[in-house]
Amino acid sequence: MKRTAVWILIFMICGIYSRLGISMWVCLVCFFFCVLKTSYFVTKNKNYRFLLLFGAFLMGFCLAGNSAKHTFVEQAGGRVAITANGVVTNVEKTKNGYLKCDILADVTETEKQNIHQNQKLLAIYPSEEMVKMGDCVSLQADALAFDRADIYGGYDEWLYLTADGYTAKVFPETLEKTGETKFLGMQIKKANETVQSVLDKILPEQESGIAKAMLTGERADIDKETDDLYTKAGVTHILCISGLHMSLFALYFTYVLRDVCKCSKRTTAGVTMLVCVGFLVFSGLRPSAMRAVVMICVTSLGYMVYRKHDWLNSLALAGIVVLGFEPLYLFQAGFQLSFVSVLGIYVGTNCMKKPKTWYGNIAYIMGISCFAVGFGLPIVAYHFYAVSWVGILANLVILPLSGALLGMILLSVIAGLLYLPFGVFLAGMVYAILQVFALVCHLVVQLPYAMLAVGRMPLWSMMAYYVLWYGLCAYRPTWKYRLLTFGSTAILLYAMLGNRLLWKENIVAFLDVGQGDCTVITTYDKRAIVIDGGGKYGKPLGENVGMTVVAPYLASQGITDVEAFFLTHFDADHSTGILELLADGKGKTLYVSAYPAVDTEAEQQFKEIVEKNGVSVYTMNDTIDCFMESLGVLHGMYPIANGVFAEHSENARSLVLQYVYGDTSVLLTGDIEAMQELQLANKNIQSNILKVAHHGSHTSSTSTFLKAVSAECGIISCGKNNRYHHPHEEVVARLEEAHMDIYRTDVSGSIIVTIKPNGGYTIHTAAERKPYYERIKTAMEKQ
């Protein structure tokens, strides 16, 4: 069998996805592909040893299951009181000035006294009292499970922190130092901090942040402006320790040992391999860097035993090592981009002939860059919802200079450690190169459509995209290749234009924003209306649900600007998210209740934001309707025009809206209570779907009102284990008496309603986005 490592990696990836993947169809394709391919190999070669290939599938499946097994916190319902004794293994500061510590501890559950040894805790402590690496500490806290991404968009805390080995996050009530100890990681961290300190002294703040990211992997000091600029220019690989940097690092040592020190090939390969492994440990064992180091080690070993390595086998072997170390890396953007980009470069070098002229070399570099960027585009679209084609142009300058930049950073740090003024002198070249980078990025982002908001790319369209690449790169004038290229092109066009031109389905999303409300209506032509934005108490603006839940959801739908915001009332659990989005410039139109505000402090805060950002504000009552052809109609139902507002309550002035598209209507009730429901009951408020008022509080959802609405299903937006105990039992009972299907965000996560223009709708929940294997397992346990 040719390239055995490649087949082992493919089977291993299929096993991992079958255990942790969400899509039923992809899971089934993975399983049956492995079964049929194993049968083919056994039958063709008449050798049962090929059954071991299926062992790679089982290995991936089992490793993934072990990584995703429930922690003691998840088994306890997501929150449990603990005491812990352990060692601080890392200390950082958050943007808010809090301490963020990694603690390796033995944990005891306070109530059940269960003991869990060697648990890695992420502790966030709002105190001026400093702890440092090596401190032995004792703490008391509630251990919390990590948040899982349950919508299209947003940070998947569980995926990334679990992959890094964490068990739970804690906010200690007490944190006491009980002693000190030493370990190897302290010396590595100290060396890392020393390098960072030198860079801070020899470079300005902005350039120092970039240099630290390239050399030590520390990205905390990269300012938002720089991060956004490099992202839009498609060159974010500069702002981290990537496979590119590891390859350049190996290249420098190879050059010094072989050409300067005149060492033999075997000695050069061995020393380079050891140095690269050391640098990998120094920089924090990042997946993309691990891939590069494994490939460097394979190449070096080939030189040591006088064997030439195979690129694809080396890349596959690197993938096997990384996924064997942690299967969850398969779902991370860094891992995927690192491997796919290298694969693109490999394909490009095999499809393009090496030129013999200088202008041919420029075209060759541009072509290879096209392959690398082109192979990575679906991954970027899937994870970041926007793609930058100008990265091809920017990389023509930035990639060749990256080697010189990394070399000068290394020399500057070494010089700075020996004699600081000499380090400052050499850092002048680093500064100059970074200025060239900034200039190139500023130039390319000015080009038309430099950054395209495409939304999250479906898995099946991603597969079609790579099939199209295969068809084009290996094209032969036969029916097979013509069918491949035509079919994959048709699928991609369907993915991009199908709903806009054919189905014209709109989506109403009730987002899980905790104990709050947020409804987003998106149309088939990529327009959006946001009704309330949720909000969590105690979280600052810029870090609340508007930016962590609502904005990522909008981006995942390919939406950059909101047509209009509707704020039912000024309570923070409805208004904070909209405040964040307006401050971020996501829209210029805001509708509010015609009744006067009760919370004048919140009203004043909104006035400041809308004036600063040029937002037009309109009041709304039951005589006003909003209409767009693609949207449908949004009827104002409350406040009542010329009505008298006598209650001193924000809830009582809530906007009530009825959204109608096709033959389907959705009633959005804010936080109205029984008195307002009584006024509405006399109107034509019959609707298919009811967003239950006030999170399911007993002060709302009277039997008379529910009878007037006659909804088929009720949506309750509330937080898990909230302190108000929403929804109240009597409300749930009244909804059941009204024969409504009940959906709750605290149980099912975000709830997505897809409405068809000619009648009918379907409902999907985030709970359905659990791994397909777990859904099967749960269904079998219930029987």
Briefly say what this structure is:
This protein has 783 residues and is an alpha/beta fold.
Tell me about this structure:
There is one protein chain. The chain has 783 residues and is of the alpha/beta class. The protein is 50% helix and 17% strand. The strands form 4 sheets. An 8-stranded mixed β-sheet has the order 14-13-12-11-10-9-22-23. Helix 24 links the parallel strand 20 and strand 21 (741-744). Helix 1 (4-20) packs antiparallel against helix 2 and helix 15 packs antiparallel against helix 16. The chain starts with a helix and ends with a helix. The relative contact order is 0.07.
Feature tags:
783 residues; alpha/beta; eight-stranded mixed β-sheet; seven-stranded mixed β-sheet; 26 helices; 23 strands; globular
Shape verdict: globular
**Uncertain ranges:** none
Roughly how many Å apart are the termini? 44 Å
- Biggest beta-sheet profile: 8 strands, mixed
Question: What is the strand and helix layout of this fold?
Answer:
Blueprint: H1 4-20, H2 24-45, H3 52-67, H4 72-75, E1 79-93, E2 99-109, E3 115-125, E4 135-144, H5 157-163, E5 168-170, E6 174-180, H6 184-202, H7 205-216, H8 224-232, H9 243-260, H10 265-283, H11 287-304, H12 311-325, H13 333-351, H14 358-384, E7 386-388, H15 391-418, H16 420-444, E8 451-453, H17 459-473, H18 479-503, E9 506-510, E10 518-522, E11 528-533, H19 545-556, E12 564-567, H20 572-583, E13 589-593, H21 600-613, E14 616-620, E15 625-628, E16 632-638, E17 656-661, E18 664-668, H22 674-680, E19 689-691, H23 703-709, E20 713-716, H24 729-737, E21 741-744, H25 745-748, E22 751-755, E23 761-765, H26 772-782
Parallel strand pairs: 3-5, 11-12, 12-13, 13-14, 18-19, 19-20, 20-21
Antiparallel strand pairs: 1-2, 1-4, 2-3, 4-5, 4-6, 7-8, 9-10, 9-22, 10-11, 15-16, 16-17, 17-18, 22-23
Helix pairs in contact: 1-2, 1-3, 1-12, 6-7, 6-15, 9-10, 9-11, 9-15, 10-11, 11-12, 12-13, 13-14, 14-15, 14-17, 15-16, 17-18, 19-20, 20-21
